[in-house]
Design brief:
The chain is α/β, with parallel strands linked by helices. Helix content is 57%, strand content 13%. It has eleven helices and eight strands. α9 links the parallel β7 (210-216) and β8. α2 (14-25) crosses α10, α4 runs parallel beside α10 and α7 packs parallel to α8 (195-204).
């Protein structure tokens, strides 16, 4: 540095000397200024952004498909505490489907509703499996219309119904897809099929569907058989003796699915916190680096000015003030930008956390209303 100063003319103006010193020793602050001027203080959540959410919903990248297989064999015309089994099952199924988070797809298949439970109608009845509500978003009036299309009548082709469910879910696979089959039945397979193998095929195929079964007013042998089916489908088996039991079991499933949404919301809260911390840290580090660099530059320029004062003929006293002013301007800029950006990040965090809290409250309100 001294050798460079020795080569300078001895009678330049102070401004000219100052520019020469900057050309020799000034740091490049372009990366820091670019960072501060282009930094994005926004925060994000996975899935649907809060500005597009009308109510509690599944994340955009999460697909949930729920296929309900409803037994409509002749025995479902029997009565239990609370009323006719078929009527109670329809009510429980509709209540369950209506309470799913926005974005979940629902399908309703009915079996055993064709023919009768007489031997002469067995063939017709065992083939009588029908998708009365195609897989898609829940629509109250259409779902109700679907429930009105059948009455209890014939035999129980449980295995064939699960095979149809597998076809229904074909193509719905992947890490972000959850397929669930719910079977409501008051009896075991009576059409010669193998429901255990059908449930295993549902679960072990690429769709990886879980098979949950509610045995409605089933005897001990029937419960054992249906539990084996649920086990093969990696699902759960529950028994219901009354209409209230049936509703309670569906409420438990409803609770579980809503808890999954709640877990997503909790994960978003955590993600927002982490993203906020990371952005605050990034801003803070950039401010520290720029302030430190300006301090190092100031020391170098001051040393150069001190030597310059000894070897030139011009009065260069003002250069010292300019050097100090430059350091002050650079550091003030960095500190101001740090404060502004961190405030924006914190404001955005607060807004997003409030939005997530609002979503959680809406979910809870809908949950309470649904119950």
């Amino acid at each position: 540095m001294r050798a460079e100063i020795d080569r300078l003319p001895k009678n330049l103006s102070q401004e000219a000397y100052y520019k020469k010193l900057l050309g020799l020793l000034a740091e490049d602050y372009t990366p820091y200024i670019h960072f501060f001027e282009t930094f994005d203080p926004s925060l994000t959540i996975d899935g649907k952004g809060p500005d597009r959410i009308k109510g509690p919903a599944l994340p955009e990248d999460q697909e949930v498909n729920i296929v309900i297989l409803l037994d409509s064999s002749g025995s479902m015309a029997g009565r239990v505490k609370g009323g006719v089994k078929m009527d109670l099952a329809k009510k429980a199924v509709k209540d369950f489907a209506s309470k799913m988070p926005e974005g979940a797809n629902v399908s309703l298949h009915v079996y055993g509703h064709k023919g009768s439970n007489a031997e002469r109608d067995k063939k017709v009845s065992c083939k009588g499996i029908e998708e009365v509500y195609p897989l898609g978003p829940y629509d109250s009036s259409e779902f109700q219309s679907a429930l009105e299309k059948f009455r209890p009548a014939g035999w129980t082709p449980l295995a064939k119904a699960m095979e149809n469910a597998k076809k229904e879910l074909s193509g719905h696979s992947g890490d972000h897809v959850q397929n669930i089959v719910y079977v409501v039945s008051d009896g075991v397979e009576t059409c010669g099929g193998d429901p255990v193998e059908a449930a295993k095929a549902l679960n072990q195929s690429d769709i990886q569907a879980v098979v949950n079964i509610i045995g409605f007013d089933v005897d001990d042998a029937g419960q054992k058989a249906l539990k084996a089916v649920a086990d093969a489908g990696k699902g759960t088996y529950a028994t219901a003796r009354t209409g209230a039991d049936l509703e309670e079991h569906f409420k438990l499933e409803y609770d579980r699915l809503w808890r999954e949404w709640d877990l997503w919301e909790d994960e978003q809260q955590r993600k927002v916190d982490l993203e906020d911390d990371e952005k605050i840290r990034e801003i803070d580090e950039m401010d520290d680096e720029m302030v430190r660099l300006a301090d190092i530059e100031d020391d170098r320029l001051t040393d150069a000015w001190d030597y310059l004062e000894d070897v030139v003929e011009t009065d260069v006293s003002e250069i010292f003030d300019w050097i100090n002013h430059r350091e002050s301007v650079l550091q003030d800029y960095a500190n101001k930008k740090e404060s502004e950006l961190q405030n924006k990040v914190n404001e955005n965090e607060s807004k997003l956390q409030n939005e997530l809290n609002r979503m959680e409250e809406e979910a809870y309100d809908k949950y309470k209303g649904g119950r």
